[in-house]
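Re: that backbone. Tokens:
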């Protein structure tokens, strides 16, 4: 998913699969965050960590836990999680229903339905050949892995991070698409809550900013 952006930016990149995606086995929230912290700790100074959606939530959590935080954190279409216990419980129920649907339908049918939703409509503006490659990439996932990722790493399962943002010791760029109203709100609030925050709204984009406008994301990272 990040390959286009990486090619535009250049430099050295490490792009691990999220747990339950691609070749990575499922893992719980704590283990997933610890894995990212380990990568951050092993890297040298000047590291920039970027994450999109679920990856953004994991990147944020890891930056909060890392003994030496990255130089910069770029969060694309991400949130700090859900504040209230009751709201998280309702989200867990929704996530469980989604996970069961993945298991019942299989990856290809589920992903086709998922991408047909309004959050991802902007991907339809990419060339047809790009859409074919994107769909092929998504369909390499295993239904059990994706279902586990929804259950274990969804916003209903992760701890709320919003009350820790004022202690984040790194520069944060919070990015959202102009047409993704909910996540634009999350991004703005996160940028305002951290000591060194910057909010960026990508014109014309929806939730899938990395796929819809890789050039805009590349410009942010290169800058």
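Recovered sequence:
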């Amino acid at each position: 998913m990040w390959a286009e952006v990486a090619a535009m930016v250049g430099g050295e990149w490490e792009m691990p699969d999220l747990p339950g995606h691609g070749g990575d086995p499922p893992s719980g929230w704590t283990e997933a965050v610890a894995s990212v912290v380990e990568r951050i700790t092993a890297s040298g100074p000047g590291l920039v960590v970027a994450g999109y959606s679920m990856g953004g939530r994991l990147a944020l959590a890891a930056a909060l836990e890392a003994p030496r935080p990255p130089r910069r954190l770029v969060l694309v279409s991400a949130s700090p999680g859900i504040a209230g216990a009751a709201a998280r419980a309702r989200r867990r129920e929704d996530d469980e229903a989604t996970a069961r649907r993945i298991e019942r339908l299989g990856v290809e049918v589920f992903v086709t339905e998922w991408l047909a939703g309004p959050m991802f409509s902007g991907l339809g503006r990419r060339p047809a050949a790009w859409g074919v490659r994107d769909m092929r990439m998504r369909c390499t996932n295993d239904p059990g892995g994706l279902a586990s990722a929804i259950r274990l790493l969804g916003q209903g399962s992760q701890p709320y991070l919003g009350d820790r943002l004022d202690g984040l010791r790194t520069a944060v760029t919070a990015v959202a698409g102009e047409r993704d109203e909910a996540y634009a709100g999350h991004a703005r609030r996160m940028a305002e809550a951290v000591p060194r925050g910057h909010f960026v709204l990508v014109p014309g984009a929806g939730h899938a900013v990395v796929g819809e406008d890789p050039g805009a994301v590349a410009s942010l990272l290169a800058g």
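The first strand starts at residue 48 and ends at 52. The chain has a mean pLDDT of 95.
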